[in-house]
Write a structure and sequence with these properties.
Chain A: InterPro entries: SSU_processome_Utp12, WD40/YVTN_repeat-like_dom_sf, WD40_repeat_CS, WD40_repeat_dom_sf, WD40_rpt. The complex is a heterodimer of chains A (630) and B (802). Chain A is an alpha+beta fold. In chain A, 31% of the residues lie in helices and 29% in strands. Chain A is elongated. In chain A, 38% of the residues are buried. Chain B has 7 helices and 57 strands. The chains are: A alpha+beta (630), B mainly beta (802). At the A-B interface, β28, α2, β30, α3 and α4 of A face β5, β33, β37, β41 and β45 of B. β30 of chain A pairs parallel with β37 (459-466) of chain B.
Chain lengths: 630, 802
């Protein structure tokens, strides 16, 4: 990997990332179209291209020019759609500054001998359209980059400036040789001084909010972060270690916790063409952050051939922050003769290995000069299938689709717009009736429950009882034993029956259970329920119930298998018994219930008898405590 | 808002005086391209309709070559004067007539030629709006217009059946028009004034002319006809008045008593000629036509030189002031910059490929556009390519050769690329081509899958499947999001799921996958399958079986459910992002837009609309529909819909009332898609934007990208017109007329019914449910829900009152 070094390559993305300008030291600038991956324009020997400069004869053509820095500037922020003015500003080793209008393909302006000894850096603030340049003479020039007029020139340093950057708001200028100095851009006063870089700073950047400076010097294997606004003399607040010196730094710092994706994101490219990405929530986190590396997989190609040039990443830009720990990075990589462009999502901790396609450097199609390896040959092959293409395909699982009623009505709905309307009209009346019925039902249900509660108070509505008695008259059909499943409803309907009806139903239920015409699960809850709710009546009518309960107990015994329900039933029987006891000893019950109970009291003895029977039953069904109670 | 996709070849371009820039009429603007890089430098915005001509004021002296002034005329009835170096408009003159062509001969005259008159005159070919009652209305008018005083001179030179294109002599002495098989040439008077009388010369031919050109210095005019002949008249208009010619006089080739010395004919082009131009020195004649070959004729000898393989019909040839530079405009929306004596192509300025006309029989099968989420559209082009075009950048990304074709207009079309589909991330593309049977033998359908490497957007062929559905055509293709799976449906009742047997186990490869194989086959009741769509998460596949929608589990290939019937065969299906609804557009005589609830298997609501395209936003429950306006609305001359034939409706799935609507032009053959907006956030103030941008591409491949929820920008332009609220009302007016044919809807009865329904004193929910036009009435299920809701809401209120 040592062979690749991107130190001497100048790259600049256009503000909208449409284009990448690359200058590789021969005085030519190639503009690549990043979306097509093709070269768009090449600038060589720029001076000849412009009519107004025709009289300036420069010798030696493009090879005599050595560009030292390059920056792509947009006039009005990042307005992408505006076609107006985005310039490529270049500094040369001879101290000239020139601006190219890339889309027009012309030299826009040139300032000759701006910095004797060479221009070292061009910086640009996003908010106001001024460009600052500095160079070996230690001066800083402010240039109006639309016109190319020199606005001001001031001493930045006594030594040669190796790097310089403007704060985003344009108020501060940071210059660096080996020492970082921050000057006010208006009155050129020194604001800060940071020392710590042993060598000349190569790249430096302000954070978006202007609170931090990130810098890296020649030969240093780290990126230093400096905080502005602290004391006069400070050391770096954070150092991000790398394996090789950095040539490019980009950062996105948003410390406002309220906005989404706040945090610190730093991107750096090393001399060897590896991209490092750090991100953390705050500066403390950044100190311990482990970089995510984006590198090109080197297994292919370059070791076996092409010893001179290795593919590398030579330009990158943080595009946007996707989530708190990941960001979209637009990178240019590969070879300088044919870079590739890709937008990748880098998330923290996931190193990215990019595959470089070395055997298709110059030929975009599949015609490579050297015969590709066998494996590749196979994979570039096109698969072809004939009409027997579905032989081992999955066949659908046959399925019968029920056409439910709703679906059918929808069919009608969809048939004809006229019908749609008619249906709509109908449907409008239909839901009405349904709804009214539904609501009535609801209301009546509520009434019933209220009645039940107030039954003893004699507010029993005759009407509501009538339907219920009807229900009881043909118990199985009308109650719909199986259909009513909820306990509450069951209770409600049982309560609404007259005691006589209930006992009748009980009898019928028992018979049904015996004859197995209904399943135990359906019947038993009912029996249970009746026994709970009409216990008083059942207790009262001894002879009939005697027989009935007896037979029930027999059945219960016989159906020992259905133990679960039987146990429940047993519990109920037990409760009934207990109630009988209570009734005998006078009411702990509410006064409202006492009155009817009083009415029944005459039958208490009968109850006792009943209990006896219960007791017998229970004895049979393995519990004898009831007997004791009795 | 981004607009683009304009035609660069609607009219001939013009070079600036230093030949560094090329001014191209692009819709209602003039775009200025740099000839050095081929990139757009600036644009002149100011016209509101198509710009029909651009005339650069020529430099009178070498020193004034850097002056950048131009005149433009437009169909909006204005003529503008620009300084295009800045660029800004200097003057705007209102003519009140749609101008189809304009020439300013006086500009071209050198001062030595004649002393300039104070006023500048233009000759315009305009459409006469005041229609005459004559049986054959002559709507085209050739008039003189005083640009300085800005009024139309008294003279109407000629009335024609339709506005004609005026051609002017490079020296500014003549201009002429074509009129069937006649050339009508006027001599520009030496001394211009409002009432100056122009001498008229008519030259005849037996065929219909298609183009004409004047020699820069001599009295020589060349014209091409539809059969490919080039006629050159020498010495026309030399005759003086009152000296009638005789037939036996020595003027060979000249017909009748036409005023010309001689006429010669050259014939090389097999079909009609679109381009005729003389070189600036007058030694060569350039010609070109439909066959796409530029022919250079040496004028004196008739020797030919060719620039073949341009690959598209030529439309215009423009010579630049720089003798080494010229441009050709091609019909496929390209402008080629030629290095002149060698005829080498230096740069190509290419725009979106223009629509072409497939054979009628296959129009039904062809589906227009494929979008991916990043704002890339894939379009089929005439020469069996697929153009991948970036909507955000308004640039072509790449072109994929689906099938080889040499441009030869005489050849019959044997292949039609019918479908193109892009996966959502844009990494996989599928194309379907149909090879037409020759004498009923050899028809072949071919499905191709292409994959692109993420590094460069070049698509490479991955899999070819011949006859994917036996003999049937493929009716639709859809990709499954997040997974390499695609579905194709066919008219012979089956659909096939294709998966990519991904080569993840293989290392060091460029492509993520190698081949596609059939994974599953399915069918439903032997019904022809017409459309397919995957849900946003890819878990459900919907296949339209004629009028029903079948839902499938794509992994297990199991039918999950069937949604009821639409009125006609379904053309398009789309899952609505964050909801349980699916929208279906059905065609046929009773075309319909219906929204279905997948959890309840019911129709939610529907409109009788002729839907051209449906697009749904993945991140919300909104979707947009491009519908063609019914004929009655177009003809009703309602002011809102003048010149518009389509409408974009933005719906929220929960309510049938559109959220917003825009009326559009050239909606037929248009496309609609939601694209992700994050690339735009640089431009617009950073905010949390959860909706995508809506991309609309019209039948002419002009497109516009806009934020459908924030449309304050959308007021003034040509493709899209009207802000939403106003349009929304008119939409209802429009649909009322559409629904007029329905049986009378008894509004009162329904109102009564409504009042019966409401047991509670009626409150707002009911009003809103039952108000509105008939077609917006919610279905039964919706009513129930709303009613119960109303009940539930009412209770606590009553409690509070008590």
């Amino acid at each position: 990997m040592g062979s690749s070094n991107i130190r001497d390559i100048l790259t600049a993305f256009s503000p909208s990332l449409d284009f990448l300008a690359i200058s590789s030291g021969d005085g030519r600038i190639k503009i690549w179209d990043t979306s097509k991956g093709q070269i768009q324009t090449e600038f060589a020997d720029i001076t000849g291209g412009h009519d107004t400069n025709q009289y300036i004869k420069r010798e030696g053509g493009h090879l005599s020019v050595d560009y030292t820095c390059m920056k792509w500037l947009a006039a009005d922020g990042k307005k992408k759609r505006k076609l107006s003015s985005s310039f490529l500003v270049l500094g040369t080793g001879s101290g000239d500054v020139l601006a190219l209008d890339v889309s027009a393909g012309q030299l826009k302006w040139r300032i000759s001998d701006c910095h004797p000894g060479g221009v070292s850096v061009i910086s640009f603030s996003k908010r106001n359209s001024c460009t600052f340049t500095s160079g070996a003479d230690g001066m800083i020039c402010e240039i109006d980059f639309l016109t190319g007029n020199l606005v001001q020139k001031f001493q930045g340093s006594t030594k040669a400036i190796s790097s310089m950057v403007i704060s985003p708001d344009g108020s501060m200028v940071a210059t660096a040789a080996s020492q970082l100095k921050i000057l006010s851009s208006t009155d050129h006063r020194k604001i800060h001084k940071f020392s710590g870089h042993p060598g000349a700073v190569r790249c430096m950047i302000f954070s978006d909010d202007g609170k931090y400076i990130l810098s890296s010097a020649v030969g240093e294997r780290y990126v230093a972060i400096w905080k502005i606004g602290g004391g006069k003399k400070q050391s770096a607040i954070c150092v991000l270690a790398m394996e090789d010196p950095a040539v490019y730094i980009d950062c996105r710092i948003n410390e406002n916790k309220k906005t989404p994706n706040s945090g610190l994101y730093v991107l750096a490219i090393s001399e060897t063409g590896i991209c490092y990405f750090w991100c953390a929530k705050d500066i403390d986190g950044l100190r311990t952050a482990i970089p995510t590396k984006i590198s090109l997989s080197s297994e292919e190609g370059f070791s076996s051939r092409n010893h001179s040039v290795a593919p590398s990443i030579f330009a990158a830009k943080l595009q946007d922050i996707a989530s708190p720990s990941s960001a979209h990075i637009f990178i240019a990589f590969g070879f300088l003769v044919k870079p590739h462009f890709q937008k990748i999502l880098v998330s923290l901790g996931e190193n990215v290995k990019l595959k470089s396609s070395s055997d298709r450097v110059l030929f975009p199609m599949n015609q490579s000069l050297t015969q590709p390896k066998k494996g590749q040959d196979v994979e570039t092959k096109v698969t072809a299938l004939d009409r027997a293409n579905a032989e081992d395909a999955l066949l659908p699982i046959p399925k019968f689709v029920e056409s439910n009623e709703r679906f059918k009505t929808q069919k009608h709905l969809a048939l004809n717009p006229d019908e749609v309307i008619v249906d709509l009209v109908k449907s409008r009346s239909q839901p009405k009736t349904e709804e009214t019925q539904g609501s009535e039902k609801n209301i009546s249900c509520k009434q019933i429950s209220m009645e039940d509660q107030l039954r003893s108070l004699g507010i029993l509505g005759e009407d509501s009882l009538i339907d219920k008695s009807q229900l009881a008259s043909s118990p199985f059909t009308d109650i719909g034993i199986g259909s009513i499943s909820s306990h509450k409803k069951m209770k409600a309907s049982v309560l609404s029956m007259t005691p006589a009806k209930a006992s009748g139903l009980l009898e019928a239920l028992i018979a049904a259970w015996k004859s197995r015409s209904f399943s135990a699960e359906a019947v038993l809850p009912w029996i249970n329920c009746i026994l709970i709710n009409h216990s008083s009546h059942i207790i009262a009518h001894d002879e009939v119930n005697n027989r009935m309960l007896h037979s029930l107990s027999k059945t219960v015994k016989a159906r020992g298998t259905a133990l679960q329900l039987l146990l429940q039933l047993f519990g109920r029987l037990h409760l009934v018994l207990a109630q009988v006891d209570k009734a005998t000893h006078g009411g702990s019950q509410g006064p409202a219930e006492e009155d009817p109970m009083d009415g029944i009291r005459s039958d208490e003895d009968g109850d006792e008898v009943n209990d006896l029977y219960y007791g017998h039953e229970d004895e049979d069904s393995q519990i004898s405590s009831d007997n004791d109670e009795e | 808002m981004i607009r683009g996709g304009r035609s660069y070849v609607s009219t001939s371009p013009a070079f600036s005086n230093d030949a560094k820039r090329l001014l191209v009429c692009t819709g209602s603007t003039v775009s200025i391209f740099s000839t050095l890089t081929g990139l757009q430098v600036a644009s002149l915005d100011g016209h509101t309709a198509l710009v029909t001509s651009v005339i650069v004021v020529p430099a009178s002296s070498p020193g004034s070559r850097i002056l950048c002034y131009c005149w433009t005329s437009s169909l909006d009835g204005t003529i503008c004067y620009w300084d295009f170096s800045v660029p800004e408009m200097i003057k705007k003159i209102d003519v009140h007539l749609p101008i189809f062509s304009m020439v300013i001969p006086t500009l071209l005259k050198t001062p030595a030629d004649s002393e300039r008159s104070s006023d500048l005159y233009a000759y315009i070919s305009a459409q006469n709006i005041n229609k005459s009652e004559r049986p054959k209305p002559l709507i085209g008018q050739l008039r003189k217009f005083n640009l300085t005083k800005s009024f139309i001179g008294g003279i109407t030179l000629k009335e024609t059946q339709r506005p004609e294109i005026i051609t002017v002599c490079p020296s500014g002495r003549f201009f002429g028009i074509l009129s069937k098989n006649k050339l009508i040439i006027w001599k520009v008077p030496d001394k211009e004034s409002d009432q100056a009388i122009l001498k008229k010369i008519v030259l005849h031919h037996t065929k219909k002319f298609s183009v004409l050109a004047f020699h820069p210095s001599q009295r020589l005019v060349a014209a091409g006809d539809v059969t490919g002949r080039i006629l050159i008249w020498r010495g026309f208009g030399n005759r003086t008045f009152g000296k009638p010619m005789k037939y036996d006089e020595d003027n060979p080739g000249v017909r009748g008593d036409d005023d010309a010395e001689s006429c010669s004919t050259w014939h090389w082009h097999p079909t009609d000629i679109n381009v005729i131009a003389f070189s600036s020195d007058g030694a060569y004649l350039y010609s070109g036509g439909t066959e796409g070959v530029l022919v250079v004729w040496q004028l004196d000898t008739g020797k030919k030189k060719f620039l073949p393989r341009i690959g598209s019909p030529l439309l215009y040839f423009v010579d630049s002031p720089d003798p080494t530079l010229a441009s050709i405009s091609c019909a496929d929306n390209r402008i080629l910059l030629l290095k002149m004596p060698y005829l080498g192509i230096m740069k190509s300025i290419s725009g979106i490929k223009l629509p072409f006309y497939a054979p009628e029989a296959f129009k039904v099968m062809c589906a227009g556009y494929a979008f991916d989420r990043a704002g890339v559209v894939a379009l089929r082009t005439e020469d069996f390519h697929v153009q991948i075009y970036s909507l955000l950048d308004d640039r072509e990304i790449s072109e994929v050769v689906v099938c080889e074709r040499n441009h030869q207009p005489a050849d019959e079309i044997t292949v039609v690329v019918t479908l193109v589909t892009l996966s959502q991330d844009g990494s996989v593309m599928s194309t379907v081509e149909v090879r037409l049977p020759e004498e009923d033998i050899g028809g072949l359908t071919c499905l191709k899958f292409w994959t692109s490497t993420s590094q460069n957007n070049q698509f490479e062929l991955s899999t070819v499947i011949y006859e994917p559905h036996r003999d049937s055509h493929v009716s639709s293709v859809a990709f499954r999001p997040n997974r390499p799976m695609a579905v194709t449906t066919s008219e012979i009742c089956d659909f096939k799921l294709w998966v990519c047997n991904d080569g993840t186990h293989r290392k060091n490869e460029l492509k993520p996958s190698s081949g596609w194989v059939c994974y599953a086959v399915g069918s439903y009741k032997r019904r022809p399958l017409t459309a397919a769509a995957f849900s946003g998460d890819g878990s459900v596949l919907a296949v339209a079986a004629d009028t029903a929608i079948t839902l499938w589990d794509p992994d297990r290939n199991e039918l999950v459910g069937v949604l009821g019937n639409t009125l006609g065969p379904i053309k398009a299906l789309s899952f609505i992002g964050q909801s349980e609804y699916i929208v279906a557009a059905s065609g046929g005589p009773k075309s319909q837009l219906s929204v279905w609830n997948m959890s309840q298997f019911t129709i939610s609501w529907s409109y009788m609309l002729q839907v051209e395209a449906v697009a749904s936003d993945q991140n919300s429950s909104t979707f947009a529909v491009l519908a063609l306006l019914p004929k009655s609305v177009i003809q009703s001359k309602e002011t809102t819909f003048v010149g518009r034939d389509g409408i974009i409706l933005l719906f929220d799935v929960k309510q049938p009332q559109p959220v917003a609507s825009w009326s559009v032009t050239k909606a037929e053959g248009g496309g609609l898609a939601f694209v992700e907006a994050n690339q735009l956030e640089d431009d617009i103030s950073p905010g949390t934007r959860k909706h995508g941008l809506l991309a609309f591409i019209n039948g002419q491949h002009e497109y516009v990208l806009f934020d459908p929820f924030n449309d304050q920008e959308l007021v003034e332009h040509s493709v899209l017109v009207r802000k939403s609220p106003a349009a929304e009302e008119t939409v209802y007016a429009g649909y009322a007329s559409l629904y007029g044919e329905l049986p009378e809807f008894d509004w009162k009865k329904n109102q009564k019914a409504a009042s019966e329904v409401v047991i509670m004193p009626s409150e707002r929910p009911w009003e809103t449910i039952f108000s509105g036009s008939s077609h917006t009435l919610p279905p039964l299920t919706k009513l129930c829900g709303a009613f119960l809701e109303a009940l539930l809401q009412k209770r606590p209120a009553a409690v509070e009152k008590s």
